[in-house]
Amino acid sequence: MASKEWPNVTVLRRTPHLRHIMSILRSVDTEPPKFAATADLIARLVVAAALEHVEYEDLKVTTPTGTTYDGTRPAKQICGVSILRAGESMEHILREWMPSVVIGKVLIQRDEETALPKFVFDKLPSKICNCQVILLDPMLATGGSAMKAIEVLHSHGVPLANIVFCNIIASPEGIDTLTKRFPEVKVVTAEVDDHLNEKKYIIPGLGDYGDRYFGTI
Ligand code: PRP
Ligand code: URA
């Protein structure tokens, strides 16, 4: 569902079923194996929604009945870029939906004291400037990490309008900051939370996504 407040932001429809799955993900009692399995379910939904925001062209295919089906294929190569570490958890889901995808990575770490993002490295396809990019990171808190990643993509020649940021939980502060700085970038998320606390953690949130997904608590 497109957000009224933020025109380029799509938030999944808040159904009782989605809230049930998010309850499992967010509960402090959910152990890492169950957390990862539940996170994958939600990632499937947001990645599918993000793939609705790339450009497609018509493609006719012949079926075994000898007749044609009016289908589509991506108009440009799709590139998934994960913000390490937590964004990497969404890569295999993008590959499931779009096996032809190419993958790049950026390592950006949020300083635990200041919450400021630190860029460490990128490994991106050489022709990324011609791709439609799905940028993967499940958490958008201050927006610092996502904005740093967008700067990196833009510095490699990716037009801002060709970037879809695919996320699971966002703070209103993070969405405000990101969409004001990069109004052309599309954002897809499962839920927008209440606020950030004094340590810049999302409230109610779910704690540290990367630690819970990868079992490094
Ligand atoms: C987390 C998360 C985002 C970032 C969000 O990563 O995955 O990248 O914090 O916060 P921000 O919007 O305030 O920048 P973190 O750097 O903690 O590393 P991790 O992926 O290794 O858990
Ligand atoms: N990163 C997380 O994993 N969780 C937050 O709430 C903020 C940043």
TrEMBL record:
<keyword id="KW-0328">Glycosyltransferase</keyword>
<dbReference type="GO" id="GO:0005525">
    <property type="term" value="F:GTP binding"/>
</dbReference>
<dbReference type="GO" id="GO:0008655">
    <property type="term" value="P:pyrimidine-containing compound salvage"/>
</dbReference>
<dbReference type="InterPro" id="IPR000836">
    <property type="entry name" value="PRTase_dom"/>
</dbReference>
<dbReference type="Pfam" id="PF14681">
    <property type="entry name" value="UPRTase"/>
</dbReference>
<dbReference type="InterPro" id="IPR050054">
    <property type="entry name" value="UPRTase/APRTase"/>
</dbReference>
<dbReference type="GO" id="GO:0004845">
    <property type="term" value="F:uracil phosphoribosyltransferase activity"/>
</dbReference>
<dbReference type="InterPro" id="IPR029057">
    <property type="entry name" value="PRTase-like"/>
</dbReference>
<comment type="similarity">
    <text>Belongs to the UPRTase family.</text>
</comment>
<comment type="pathway">
    <text>Pyrimidine metabolism; UMP biosynthesis via salvage pathway; UMP from uracil: step 1/1.</text>
</comment>
<keyword id="KW-0547">Nucleotide-binding</keyword>
<keyword id="KW-0808">Transferase</keyword>
<protein>
    <recommendedName>
        <fullName>uracil phosphoribosyltransferase</fullName>
        <ecNumber>2.4.2.9</ecNumber>
    </recommendedName>
</protein>
<feature type="domain" description="Phosphoribosyltransferase">
    <location>
        <begin position="14"/>
        <end position="216"/>
    </location>
</feature>
<keyword id="KW-0342">GTP-binding</keyword>
<keyword id="KW-0021">Allosteric enzyme</keyword>
